[in-house]
Amino acid sequence: MTPRGALARVTGRLRRTAERALDRRYGVATSTHVYLEDLGLETENRVWHDPSDWVAARRALARLNVTPDDVFVDYGSGLGRAVLVAASFPFRKVIGVELSGELTEQARENLARNAHRVRAAEVELVAADALEWPVPPDLTVAYLYCPFTGDVFDRVLAKLLESVDEHPRPLRMVYNYPLEHSRLIRTGRAHVLDVRSSAWLSRSRWGPEAIVTYLLLPQDESLRREYVAQYPQHVAGAEQWLGEYEPGYILEKPARLGGVVVDRRQ
User: Can you tell me whether residue 174 is helix, strand or coil?
Assistant: First the structure.
């Protein structure tokens, strides 16, 4: 094993230990990978449950300067980890949207155990298909931990952009493991605001383990300029994300479910 490989192995072990420790602290079980096939759900262009890194998610949301006017949604909220993190900020409302009713019920239990930690004025967990769920006209922060790919991603994005046009307001997308970054950039409707590492113990912003925050732009040019002027960029040292960029993504299931789904490594 190379020194780099050995370091990655040790770092991975430390991350998993920290994840379990934080689950114990919150009295929840959110570290499990859950596959849609095992729940009898549609899998095409949809990604299984894989929880966000507790620390990285908190750091990314902390950079938003959340106010009591902000409304947050986690697309593909799973067992509720990102919702728990978001609920510790002063959002007016935090919403988790999850295809699986079973996972939503478990997320509700996890949330109930942490009611004393909630700073958000309201928290709601919804079992719904993101393709059918109506985008709230006051939504200001959309969080995605790579829940969709391809056509499903495009259709959910189209709903968000349509909402911005119908109900003009700044809407930020916090995209963890941004596999469809280049598709998003090609729309001409996404302005990159910030790039952070999505992994605790890592500061690299060049690989796929990144959280990229975008401002979704309305079609109206004057509103675009107004909204862009409100939010400074924090991309120094990570300018590659300003355009189309392919850092080498991989999505892989257990062999029993078909193994590699996406492999863009060079």
Answer: strand
| Closest CA relative to residue 178, chosen from 164, 161, 197, 162 | 197
Answering whether pTM is above 0.85, one says yes
Q: How many CB atoms lie within 10 A of CB 107?
A: 26
Strands (E), 167-220: 171-176, 190-197, 210-216
Give me 184's structure tokens: 């998003």
Residue 125 parent element (H or E): strand 123-127
Per-position b or e across 53-64, b if 16+ CB within 10 A of its CB:
bbbbbbbbbeeb
Domains of the chain in start order, with CATH, are 3-263 (3.40.50.150)
Residue 85 CB partners (closer than 8 Å, separation 6+) = 52, 54, 57, 58, 61
Residues of the chain with pLDDT under 70: 1-16, 201-203
Closest CA to 217 of 208, 228, 206, 207: 228
pLDDT digits (tens, 9 = 90+) for 204-230: 788 899 999 999 999 999 999 999 999
